Amino acid sequence: MKIINKDLASLKRLVQTKTQQLTDLKVESAVRDIIANVIEKGDAAVKAYEAQFDNVDVTDFKLSQAVIDDAYANLDPQVKDALLLAKRNITSFHEKEKATGFIDAEQPGVLRGQKLLPLKRVGLYVPGGTAAYPSTLLMSALPAKIAGVSEVIMVTPPQVDGINPAVLAAAKIAGVDAIYQVGGAQAIAALAYGTESIPAVDKIIGPGNVFVATAKKQVFGQVAIDMVAGPSEIGILADDSADPRQLAADLLSQAEHDQRARPILITDSADLAQAVSDNVTSQLKVLPREAIATEAVNEKGFIAVVAKVEEMFDLMNTVAPEHLEVQLKNPTQYLNLIKNAGSVFLGRYASEPLGDYVAGPNHILPTSGTARFSSPLGVYDFVKRTSFIQYTKDALAKEAPAITTLARVEGLEGHARAIESRFDTYYD
Ligand SMILES: NC(=O)c1ccc[n+]([C@@H]2O[C@H](COP(=O)([O-])OP(=O)(O)OC[C@H]3O[C@@H](n4cnc5c(N)ncnc54)[C@H](O)[C@@H]3O)[C@@H](O)[C@H]2O)c1
Ligand SMILES: N[C@H](CO)Cc1c[nH]c[nH+]1
Ligand SMILES: [Zn+2]
After folding, report:
1. 68 and 179 Cβ atoms separated by less than 8 Å
2. What number does CATH give the domain 25-229+379-383?
3. What are residue 389's DSSP bridge partners?
4. Please, what is the average pLDDT of the chain?
5. Residues of the chain with CATH 3.40.50.1980
6. In this structure, which residue's CA is closest to atom 10 in ligand 1?
7. Burial degree of 38 (CB within 10 A; 0-12, 13-18, 19+)
8. Are the CB atoms for 203 and 226 separated by under 8 Å?
9. What angle do CA 157, 122, 112 make, to 5 degrees?
10. Which is it for the CA torsion 365, 377, 135, 52, positive or negative?
11. CA distances to 70, 208, 383 from 320, in Å
C-alpha cells in the first residue's frame, strides 16, 4: 500500500483527488439513458437491462411467497441465529431513535405543533452485484418497520442461480412486504417512476455501486432518497500502540467490497505505516476477492504519515470517511476532535465488521465525503413532519401589524388583506 509523507496541505489536496467523484460523466450519461428507457418502456426496458447487466432472463419480477418461505425454512440454523441476534441489536438501538411530535401552547391563545407521520411506501435497494447483503437488508428494513411504514418493498439484482437464500430469509425476518428481482439503475428508475409490475414508492433507501448511487441522485425530486451511499470506505487513525496485522485486516475488510472502495490509514508512526503496508500485501493473497481488494488498495487507498495527533484528525476530517476507526491510546478522549464521519469505532476490539453485522448502529452510512452533511440511516429517515398552527382572534390581533407590515414590504397586498379580513379594519 502506498505510503505518503507530505505536508498537511498537500495531503488534504490528495484526499480531494482520491475522493469518489460523485459526477462521473460517463456513468451519469449511461444512467440517464437507463432511466429514460425505463420511464418510456417500463417492464420491457427493465427486462432488457437485466439480461444485459446481470445475464438473467427475468420472467416475473416479483418473487412468490413460496420461494421466500422455502428459503427461510431451509436456512442454516447458525445463519438464522446470527440474523436474529443482529435483528435484536439493530432493533434495540433503533428503538431509541423513535421521536414524537410536540405541541407548544406556551403563548396565550396560540397553539403550535408538529406531528410525525411514517412514509406510506418505501423501496429498499439491497445490493447484490458482487456479493449478497442480508445484513444490509436488516439495516434498512428494521428502521422502516420501527417507524411504522405501511408498505416496505425491496429490490435486489437477480442471480443466475437465484437470489441468495439468506437475503430472502432476512427479508422474512424483517417483515419486508414484497421482493422484486431487479438491480442497478434500472431498479432505481422502476422504484421512482413505477412500471407495470413494480410500484412507485415515496422514498428509495439503501446503498449500491456507482450506478445505483448515480441513479438515486438523478431521480431525487421525483422521489425522496436517503443519502448517497456508494462504495464502502474505512479511515483508520492509529499510533504505535496499534497492531499492524489488525489494521491491515480492517483496511482490507472494506477494500474487498468494491474496486472503488477507499481504505485509508493516517498515522504518526513511520514504522507502523511500513508494517501495515507489508501486512496488506501478504493478507491480500488469502482473500477470495483479491482482485477487487487489490484494485481498491492501489487506486483509492493510501497510508499518510503526519507529524502529530491533531494533524491526523484534521486530515481525517477532510476525508470524512464512512467508517472511522480510532486505534490510539485512550481513544474515547478524542471523540470531540471528530467532525466528519459516518460511524466511529473506538479501540482495538471495535473492528469495523462488528458494526457491519451485529452491534446495532446502522451500517448504511454516507460515503464519498458526504459525512460532512449526512447522517447514518435511521428511523428518522422513514418519517416526515407536518406542522400545525391555531390562533385565537386576540392572539392574531397582537401579531397582525407585524404580518401586514412584512407582507407589504414584500409587495404582497393580498397577504395583508387576508389577515385584515379577520378584523373590523377590513375593507373591499
Ligand atoms: N454503505 C453500505 O451500507 C453498503 C452496504 C453494502 C454494500 N455497499 C456497497 O454497495 C456496493 C455493491 O455493489 P455491487 O456491484 O456488488 O452491487 P449493486 O447491486 O449495487 O450493483 C449491481 C448492479 O449494477 C448494475 N451494473 C453493473 N455493471 C453495470 C454497467 N456497466 N452499466 C450499468 N449498470 C451496471 C447491474 O444492474 C447490477 O445489477 C459496493 O460498492 C459496496 O461497497 C455499501
Ligand atoms: N461495510 C458495509 C457498509 O459500508 C456494510 C457491509 C455489509 N456486509 C458487510 N459489510
Ligand atoms: Zn463491510
Report:
1. yes
2. 3.40.50.1980
3. 112
4. 95
5. 3-20+231-360, 25-229+379-383
6. 208
7. buried
8. yes
9. 160
10. negative
11. 42, 19, 26
Q: Which residue has the cell 513511520?
A: 270
The response to whether residue 232 sits with its C-beta less than 6 Å from ligand 2 reads yes
Q: Angle at CA 245, nearest 5°, toward 239 and 246?
A: 70
Strand, coil or helix: 101: coil
Q: How far is CA 418 from CA 74, 396, 403, in A?
A: 66, 12, 10
pLDDT digits (tens, 9 = 90+) for 287-336: 999 999 999 999 999 999 999 999 999 999 999 999 999 999 999 999 99
349 annotated to bind ligand: no
ipTM: 0.98
Question: On the CB side of 241, how many CA atoms lie within 13 Å of its CA?
Answer: 9
Helix (H) or strand (E) holding 114: strand 110-118
220 DSSP assignment: B
Query: How high is the pLDDT of residue 425?
Result: 62
- Report the C-alpha gap between 202 and 222 in whole angstroms: 9
CATH of 3-20+231-360, one of 2.60.120.10, 3.30.160.150, 3.30.470.10, 3.40.50.1980: 3.40.50.1980
Nearest protein CA to atom 13 of ligand 1, as residue: 209
Catalytic residues: 322-323
Neighbour count for residue 190 (Cβ, 10 Å): 29
At residue 25, the pLDDT reads: 84
Identify the pLDDT of residue 17. 79
- Cell numbers 479511515 correspond to 235
pLDDT at residue number 238: 98
Confidence (pTM): 0.94
Would you say the CB of residue 231 lies under 6 angstroms from ligand 1?
Answer: yes
Assigned C-alpha cell, 421:
379580513
Residues of the chain with pLDDT under 50: none
State the Cα–Cα distance between residues 75 and 206, nearest whole angstrom: 24
Nearest ligand 2 atom, CA 367: 4
State whether the beta carbon of 363 lies less than 6 angstroms from ligand 2.
Answer: yes
Burial class (CB in 10 A: 0-12, 13-18, 19+), 17: exposed
Give the H or E element holding residue 250: helix 244-255
Which distant-in-sequence residues (6+ apart) come within 8 Å of 354 by Cβ?
Answer: 345
Rg (the chain; Cα; Å): 25
Which residues 6+ apart lie within 8 Å of 150 measured at CB?
Answer: 118, 120, 121
The grid coordinates listed for 142 are 428494521
